[in-house]
Write a structure and sequence with these properties.
The protein is of the alpha+beta class. It has three domains: 170 residues, tt1808, chain A; 49 residues; 109 residues, no CATH class. 38% of the residues lie in helices and 21% in strands. Helix 6 packs across helix 7 and helix 7 packs across helix 8. The longest helix has 29 residues. The chain is globular, with a radius of gyration of 24 Å.
């Protein structure tokens, strides 16, 4: 069984077992130890994986960390574990304190589902407070599998991982900046781009005008890129239809709603599908706590489709049938929205 298949088995294991795991120790035994085994380590060999590894800190003697992975007789990775329901935070965390007194180059903070990988890119021998890699085993991405593979026993190489860590750190930070700028262009970005096409003085009024133009230009570029992707993508197989029909879920207070990057990307996919049939300015969305709705003319009465993307393992796209009931189709990822192009266009054309 290859590494990818082992990780898929772990994801299934998490889904089946997590609700029965009442303690941190149970989380270690049921989720974290199998993960270390999938990485190729012998969890029953203390020369390879040392449980309750002792790290003396100043006058504090006998302080322990949950696991240490050893290579050539020295610890190379420290692992701090939490219960699967516990949030992962470095505030006053043992991992942060132990790192600087250990020769280990990497630290992992995990609750058996989420794994955060740390090193010392900013200051030597002082662990960064921001992970260079964060992986959710219940929602794995292809590139994350390749990065995880570098921590496997058979491939473990400090220099190789450090090179990747540096690239990942800055790539993630730049991606966050891009997402912020795409959602709400800063005045600095607007001025920079405006000067490329406008010879006059950038007054407050000009800045306001170009802010709108920049936002529209970004949206159009994203739409075109997704449309091109749609044209070159192979038709997806028809996804499995859930047999149950459900009644619409009531709206909730907007204070509890957070529109995610995945939901916005899904919106642009649907918008690109509809561009050949519906004017782009008619296509809008509304977000709710439990679902994300794509509509026409900013009207809830003109619903195109509804997306359920909050669960990493149970994503769905839904349409309203002739009987006014919602029919949901399971999708593995938002890429499978392309396979629903015909239904999306059909749903929208009811309002033309």
């Amino acid at each position: 069984m290859d590494f990818k298949d082992q990780l898929k088995q772990l994801a299934d294991r998490i889904d089946k077992l997590k609700e029965s795991l009442q303690t941190e120790e149970a989380t270690k035994n049921a989720l974290i130890m199998p993960f270390l085994q999938a990485m190729g380590y012998d969890v029953f060999n203390p020369l390879e994986v040392m449980p309750e590894f002792t790290c003396d800190i100043g006058t504090k003697k006998g302080e322990k960390i949950d696991y240490a992975i050893f290579k050539d007789g020295a610890p190379v990775v420290l692992i701090e574990c939490k219960h699967w329901k516990q949030p992962l935070t470095l505030h006053d965390n043992q991992l942060l304190r132990y790192y600087h007194v250990s020769p280990a180059k990497f630290g992992i903070l995990t609750n058996g589902i989420n794994y955060r990988f740390y090193t010392d890119l900013e200051t030597p021998n002082k662990m960064d407070e921001t992970p260079f890699l964060e992986v959710d085993l219940s929602d794995m991405k292809g590139n994350q599998i390749e990065e995880l593979k570098k921590f496997c026993k058979a491939y473990f190489d400090v220099e190789n991982i450090m090179t990747s860590a540096s690239e990942l750190k800055y790539t993630n930070e730049l991606r966050s900046i891009l997402m912020r700028e795409f959602a709400s262009p800063s005045s600095e970005l607007v001025k920079l781009w405006a000067k490329q096409v406008y010879d006059g003085t950038i007054t407050a009024k000009v800045l306001e005008q170009f802010t709108t133009l920049v936002r529209k230009s970004i949206a159009n570029y994203v739409n075109d890129a997704i449309a091109e992707r749609l044209q070159t993508a192979l038709k997806s197989a028809e996804p499995e239809v859930q047999t149950e029909t459900v009644i619409s879920v009531p709206e909730v207070s907007e204070s509890k709603i957070e529109t995610t990057a995945e939901e916005l990307e899904a919106f642009y996919i649907v918008k690109s599908i509809l561009r050949s049939a519906i004017p782009a300015e008619r296509i809008t969305y509304r977000d709710a706590q439990n679902y994300f709705t794509i509509i026409l003319d900013d009207s809830n009465r003109k619903l195109v489709c509804r997306l359920y993307l909050n669960s990493p393992t149970n994503k769905m796209i839904a349409f309203i049938g002739d009987d006014k009931k919602e029919i949901r189709y399971k999708i593995a990822s938002i890429d499978e929205i392309y396979g629903q192009a015909e239904q999306i266009i059909g749903a929208a054309q009811r309002y033309t």
